[in-house]
Amino acid sequence: MFGLIRRIDHGLIWLNLIALLTISFMPFPTAVLGARLDANDQFPVVFYAASMTVSSVVLTLTWLYARNRRLVEPSLANGDLRRFTMRAVVTSVVFLVSIGAAFAGLLPAVLCWVLLLPAARLAARRLSG
Question: How many domains, in total, are found in the chain?
Answer without folding.
Answer: 1
